[in-house]
Write a structure and sequence with these properties.
Number of strands: 0
Order of helices and strands: HH
Distance between the termini: 104 Å
Oligomer: single chain
Structural class: mainly alpha
Number of helices: 2
Largest sheet: none
Length: 61
C-alpha cells in the first residue's frame, strides 16, 4: 500500500492546474461583420453607380 493517496493527488493536481483558456469569439464575429458590410457596400455601389462609358456614344444628345 502506498503512503500517498492517489485520489487526493488527482484532486490536488486538478485544483492547482491553471484554468483552461477559453477562445474568444468576438474577433471572428467582428471580421465576419466587416466582410459582410464591405460586400454589401460594394454591391450597392455597383448597382447605383452609372455605367462607365470610355468612348463617345453617337446619336445621343
Amino acid at each position: 500500500m502506498s503512503a500517498l493517496d492517489i485520489e487526493a493527488l488527482k484532486r490536488a493536481r486538478k485544483l492547482t492546474a491553471p484554468p483552461a483558456r477559453k477562445e474568444r469569439l468576438w474577433p471572428v464575429v467582428a471580421a465576419a461583420a466587416l466582410a459582410a458590410f464591405t460586400a454589401l457596400s460594394f454591391a450597392t455601389a455597383m448597382i447605383l453607380a452609372p455605367p462607365v462609358v470610355s468612348h463617345s456614344v453617337e446619336g445621343v444628345e
